[in-house]
Design a protein that fits this description.
There is one protein chain. Strands 2, 4, 5, 6, 9, 10 and 11 form a 7-stranded mixed β-sheet that branches. This protein is mainly beta. It has no helices and 11 strands.
């Protein structure tokens, strides 16, 4: 099983980025997917998740209205569209495979990508 994130970069506050996470080695369409982030000096935190069907989506409060998670089961890819970025969004962003198949709520598994750096300057 493998997850490969891409799309990070350096942007100014207010700008946008779109992260992608390409999955392989498992039946992607059966599992929820989540995005998490790790900022310097902080613990890794949940950002957003999407159920296997795409019907159930959850966001961390600080990103609601700014970030959008989506998935394309034909392409085995999950996305995170990030708009109105803030300096406090600066972190390494990781995608994660859900622990169990066909669930509404994302429970993290041990399958993580390598991460992609997002840096937002003020």
């Amino acid at each position: 099983m493998q997850l490969v994130e891409s799309g990070g970069g350096l942007v100014q506050a207010g700008e946008s980025l779109r992260l992608s996470c390409a999955a392989s080695g498992f039946t992607f369409s059966n599992y929820s997917m989540g995005w998490f982030r790790l900022a310097p000096g902080k613990e890794r935190e949940f950002v957003a998740s999407i159920s296997w069907s795409g019907s159930y989506i959850y966001y961390e409060d600080s990103v609601k209205g700014r970030f959008t998670i989506a998935r394309d089961n034909d392409k085995n890819t999950v996305y995170l569209q990030m708009n109105s970025l803030r300096p406090e969004d600066t972190a390494v962003y990781y995608c994660n495979k859900g622990n169990s198949a066909l669930t509404r709520v994302h429970t993290p598994s041990g399958v993580w990508g390598q991460g992609t750096q997002v840096t937002v300057s003020s």
